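Exercise 7.
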Amino acid sequence: MSLVPITYKGGVYQLDEVIDYIEDLGGYIVQRHNIANEVILQVLMPSEDIERLKVFSRPLAGEVSESPLVGTEIAVVIPSLEIHHLPHSACDVAEYLRAHGSKSNMLGMARGFGKRISQMNDEERDLINEHDVAVFILGNFASCIEQKFEKFRRGINIPIILTGGPSREVLEKQTVPPVAGYVGNLGRFMHRTQTEADIARLDAVIEEVERVVSERRKELALDPLSVSPARLQMLLEQEIPEIEDILAPAPVAVQLNGLRLKLSYPEYADRIRGLVIEDGITVGDVCDVLPSRMRDYVLIRIRPLSETNIVV
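Solution. The predicted structure, written as tokens, is:
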């Protein structure tokens, strides 16, 4: 069964009925946001049932739209957190990704500055690799990007989208081998992205990320995961009540092929491995439960059918 990412926007009136209907259709609520009297639900559900949800929610003034970035976690990478390398565009890109359904994390490198001395350490590289996609936001000079980016990309095994001040054509020439996507004309500029031209730059980033994520989902469909990340999230929330006490945003971050759980790995790893999904099959049978480089959180990687011969 193929699950499609969508967003539901509506009021609090009869919200429980909407949630029950989504779950009855085989859908999973990835995240829920309450904004005044409006509720935003980020959902993964069967594609053939989306039209039914639209019909059901129409009398309640609810809106259903496809959101390809729901159920992803994306790293926004900048050379450093200093004012020279933290232009407003980096914050706006991260926020724009969140507005389109993704969970985004900004990572500023400790020694990413300087053409000759720039470098990325193992911890930063491992943390980036824990995400689904990495968006590198670099500067305005092609020569700087050419010298620095080759050092940054070493060891990164997730799709990379490169952005910078030069045009897309120039960026493509600066990176050999090529990366998964490019967005030009988005370098350092010291103002917020408020004009129509600025918003168009952010839209270009979203389009490129959505394209890369869609390609990644097609690759995963060729060798399906042993369990859906959304189903695993529901299991964790049911069996580990301590998740409700987590104050950090998105205590369970859903990814394309796993989850990040914001609980202590030493304390909860064995407990998570022993959770029964169905018919005696445990989380440890179909997943790798690993320590995350982000604090002491739990990183869960779901193994594919080809490795486990199990689909639950």
